[in-house]
Amino acid sequence: MALILGLDTGGTFTDAALLDSDAREVLAHAKSLTTRHDLSVGVGAAMAATLQNWGGQKAHISLVSLSTTLATNAVVESVGGAACLILIGFDDQILTRAGLAEALGSEPSFAIKGGHRPDGRPQTGLDKPGLIRAIEAVKGRVTSFAVASHFATRNPEHEREARDIIIAETGLPVSCSFELSSSLGGPRRALTTLLNARLISLLDRLVKATEKQMASLGLSCPLMVVKGDGSLLHVDYARTRPVETILSGPAASLAGAAFLADQKAALVADIGGTTTDIARLQGGAALLSHEGAHVGGWRTMVEAAHIRTRGLGGDSEIRADNRAMQPSLHIGPRRAIPLSLLATDHPEIKPVLVRQLEQPIAQPHDGRFVMPLMPDGVPTWLNRSEAKLAAKALEKAPIALAELATTQVALGAVDRLVRRGLLIFACFTPTDASHILGRFTEFDDEAANLGAQLLARQKTAAGDKIAETVVDIAQMSLDTLSLQSAISLLDAGFAEQGEAENIVSTSNFLTSSLKQHQQNKTHNNRAARASLTLELPLIALGASAAAYYPDIAKLLGAEIIVPPFSEVAGAVGAAAGSVRQRVMILVTQPKDGVFRVHLPDGLEDKTVLEEALDRAREAAKSLAKARAEAAGAKQLSLTLEEKIDKIALTEEKSLFLQAAITADAAGTPS
After folding, report:
1. Domain parsing of the chain, residue ranges
2. Which residue from 100, 140, 266, 630 lies 20 to 30 Å from 514 (Cα-Cα)?
3. Topology annotation, domain 81-199
């Protein structure tokens, strides 16, 4: 009997499930609210409740396996630590590619001379004085650094040198692009590295919280973290590579769906508090995207399960569309604390909501509060205005947004603090709407009702109220969630069968047809009608799946499956994972008679092609094995893939271009 305790920390709930991996049986499970201000509270509560429900001996548990949607949510919501991007040897246009400038936002970046050519030789020496000046310019303003160098996948020398200098000067974490991807594409490598740098502190907080609770519960077994492809990493290895945990939670849920549902082919939708993650099961397993995870509009270079993530969840922020002539709502992509949940712990917000309702004219920030997420106090790297607002939010939490930010400049500072993960909004969400309609009633109904009244009296561009009653605004909110979810599912379905991405969401005709079908509009003089159907079965996962997905499945004419333990599918999938590492080594021919092996620690030249290929094979297998063992694997199996590109000149002779040797090491958690 191999007992594994799986954990899944989401934006709203933390789930735990105890799995007998030999018998393939879920022995116990539990849920707890994720406590964003102190993650250890929610993690510990879920673990303790599961162990209590089981009642066995803790010493029999051999592993704790942790999956999380926190990295996914952070990318979708553009939240994370303050990172400085160091770009070495790129041209002036790099920020215009791969959405890098948009992802960077207001964070600092510096262009440093250096980098390498495609054959691995340096373009020029690394500009160390320039690097020192860049470091001095941001000292005290950032929490981590991201370093990306031109053709670092062919020679990472300058990235390693820059990393060593930055650590010596600042002591801060440094993410290097060559450690995260062996693929070409400098702008996307830089984006991946920037995201990794932002996520380091976030994952570290979660790991420390989990380790703290394991110690208090007397669990001395190893801790592992789920990667975005569903495999596992030892916790120490994962701490330096948090970008690999993007889609960790969704990948674990997919593994859980495959474990729990008796379906070989299906579309899986996992709805959480912040996001809905959509993927296709084929042959009973999730498809992998070797091109990289696609999250929140960004395409990373980290191999992950082929999942499409949308900012649609039970706790998605709902706002009135004041520019539309007809009553309309915006939903997501940002997560908020539901008013009903906030009032459970802070009933003092209800008199504030009542006072806002007593005002004769609706204000745009009515029903919106701010909560701090700063367990260690106000960070020293904030500017003066941001620090002042953060301190005020800490002093009076929760605080009405209208009280915290009285000017547009202050509102901009609050938004930056939210994107940094230091503050979080509280407002009306689908969870509040569910309280009003009686679908979910665990929190404060009165606060949900007051929030609904405030939202309903917001005005359209024509000056009309958004809705007449709280029931109307609640149903409108859930209809908006259902419609956007259905569109996302159809986008995924069409894309998986080879059509273009976002084929439904970018078509006004198709989205309008689906909306008319949802509203059951009829026209006596209609000559034609468009119909959109999901033909695969739909497996719905998540705590709120049973509340929201029957309406969505009905809208799509789809068969719906909500399997047993679907509310803790991520925790089940985390417990069912294995360890896997892939390493790719490139061989090129910079000139006649020279075959260059591009190794992580430098270049090796051979005069015979087969010798170069043998060296690449040896290095790939050795590195994959070492990384898998560092990631926490035992009983390893190794596989080798080779892609050798040649151009045939004659029947007897061909021109060698390059070879990619990929080793895959997989094993069970040690």
Report:
1. 81-199, 316-477, 579-669
2. 266
3. Rossmann fold (3.40.50)
